[in-house]
Amino acid sequence: NHFIIFPARPGGAPSAELSRPLADRFTGIGCDQALMLEPPRRTGTAAYYRIFNADGREVEQCGNGARCIARYLRERAGASGGDLVLDSPGGLVQTKLKGEQVSVTMGVPNFDPASLPFDASGEAYVYPLSVGASEVEIGAVSVGNPHAVIRVPSVADAPVARLGPSIEHHPRFPKRTNVGFMEVVDRGHIRLRVHERGTGETRACGTGACAAVAVGRRHGLLDENVTVDLPG
């Protein structure tokens, strides 16, 4: 997916009035998320980054964004590889660069509903969720940011445009949520589409991929190593 990376201006964060026009693909630069770099706040880290979705709202984490930041910082330093630790509202992220590949360690998935937050009486593998006149079953997990994951027979026919916004803004998600539509091809392979909070459907989502695999693993559907295919 598509990012703008820029250093923080003196005086604080970009407002929604700035980040929304930047994200517009017709009159601005165009992006899914704007990533703002600040000086490190903890020793041993290369930078602190903040994430603003296309609607101008700040969110906690962005997996693919962290990968782009790591490569951006390495290229500015004239280096082609190595490890960097980044800091963010969602916590520390360990990054590793090797040639053209950038990988990130996203931490341990948190299934506690309060971590998203999600309004539930207790932790469960599956939650029924009333959406309009229908009811869907979701898995809910935080990987630094909130995700609802729905298993579908085929991502090609998944009702992303219809259910994505409704679940994102569901009252049981007081801070809204990302919504993943997961097709299990086999125990080592899934297909995924993600409606991202504040942006809509994107061509890739790193935290969404981690969330879908975490939910699939918890439901006993997937092995330890899983290939995730996204539109991008």
Write the layout of secondary structure elements.
Layout: E1 3-7, H1 16-23, E2 33-38, E3 47-53, E4 58-59, H2 63-76, E5 82-87, E6 93-98, E7 101-105, E8 127-131, E9 134-142, E10 146-151, H3 160-168, E11 178-186, E12 189-196, E13 200-202, H4 206-218, E14 227-229
Parallel strand pairs: 1-2, 3-5, 10-11, 12-14
Antiparallel strand pairs: 2-3, 3-4, 5-6, 6-7, 8-9, 9-10, 11-12, 12-13
Structural features, described:
The strands form two sheets. Strands 1, 2, 3, 4, 5, 6 and 7 form a seven-stranded mixed β-sheet that branches. Strands 8, 9, 10, 11, 12, 13 and 14 form a seven-stranded mixed β-sheet that branches. Helices cover 19% and strands 34% of the residues. The longest helix has 14 residues, at 63-76. It has four helices and 14 strands. It has 232 residues and is of the alpha/beta class. The model has no long low-confidence stretch (mean pLDDT 93).
Structural class: alpha/beta
Q: How would a textbook summarize the main sheet?
A: 7 strands, mixed
Measured distance between first and last alpha carbons = 7 Å
Shape: globular
Strand content: 25-35%
Brief account:
The chain has 232 residues and is an alpha/beta fold. Helix content is 19%, strand content 34%. The chain has 4 helices and 14 strands.
List keywords for this structure.
232 residues; alpha/beta; 7-stranded mixed sheet; 4 helices; 19% helix
